[in-house]
Specification:
Blueprint (H helix, E strand, L loop, with lengths): L1 H16 L1 E3 H8 L3 H13 L3 E4 L2 E4 L2 H13 L2 H12 L7 E4 L19 E4 L2 H7 L6 E4 L3 E3 L4 E3 L1 H7 L4 E6 L3 E3 L3 E4 L2 H12 L1 E7 L11 E4 L6 E5 L4 H9 L4 E4 L1
Helix pairs in contact: 1-3, 2-3
């Protein structure tokens, strides 16, 4: 929990000033420089920051392209397996929502043979992939484009997504926990996911095993709101059994 508080402080300060130093974190929380560097390294890995000498800075649009690519390449094989398995639940003539995120977007490459499919999405990579298939109708919701996430968020996006009813929603998360539910670093992307889940008949959570029992700052759904959690085969067996003991429908993609 202390680590989460420090990361929130880092993100808040970055948002206000555009940068932060290791010493500022050390002085604010009375932690070691190594601890502060680990916090920054985790946020850099997730694409929220760009590392600098002695600290970190806010991503700009050019550097954001590379941070997205790094997230997209992380656990690439696992994410592809999750996307393939998730696509097996999509049938001809379905209406589905596809969330933003580097795991969820992997479902798109396995949908080209679905006829009469209608897809609602806030993901620019998802829309870019699916427009190649003339037999798939793509509805890209409008709103504010967030370059580092390659997605569309904000009040306009939330208002639009609330108007659609879908059979299946495929969403992602920064972390999922039996106690805390689905959490994200902020409310922007997660509010769109929450509304989409509320508008769906069935909700599928797609996340790699590194996010299982991880907790971030903003809670937007409970695990009971999910009909099926699809993760990869690297999930810790103890965690897998804990989820199944709580009657959470969880399956592994291999």
């Amino acid at each position: 929990m202390a680590q989460d508080i420090r990361k929130k402080y880092i993100l808040d300060r970055i948002e206000k000033t555009g940068e932060i130093t290791i010493n500022q974190i050390v002085n604010a929380f009375n932690v070691s420089g190594m601890t502060a560097r680990r916090d920054i390294a985790d946020l850099v890995e997730r694409g929220y920051l760009i590392r600098t000498h002695g600290g970190a800075m806010k991503s700009d649009p050019v550097l954001s392209m590379f941070s997205y690519s790094r997230r997209n390449d992380r656990f690439k094989d696992r994410k592809t397996a999750i996307g393939r398995l998730a696509a097996s639940y999509v049938k001809d003539n379905d209406t589905v929502y596809i969330d933003s995120g580097t795991t969820v977007v992997r479902i798109c490459q396995f949908l080209k043979n679905r006829n009469g499919l209608r897809v609602v999405t806030n993901s620019l990579p998802a829309a870019s992939e699916l427009i190649n298939y003339a037999h798939i109708e793509v509805i890209l919701i409008g709103g504010k484009i967030v370059p580092e996430r390659r997605s569309i968020y904000g009040p306009a996006a939330i208002g639009q997504i609330a108007k659609y009813h879908v059979k299946k929603a495929f969403i992602g998360t920064e972390g999922v926990s039996l106690e805390k539910g689905l959490t994200a670093y902020g409310s922007n992307e997660s509010e769109v996911s929450r509304i989409a889940a509320n508008q769906a008949e069935r909700v599928f959570l797609l996340c790699d095993s590194s996010k299982i029992e991880k907790v971030s700052f903003y809670r937007f759904l409970s695990v009971e709101d999910i009909n099926l959690l699809i993760t990869d085969g690297k999930i810790d067996r103890t965690l897998l059994e804990r989820y199944r003991e709580k009657d959470i429908n969880i399956i592994e993609a291999t």
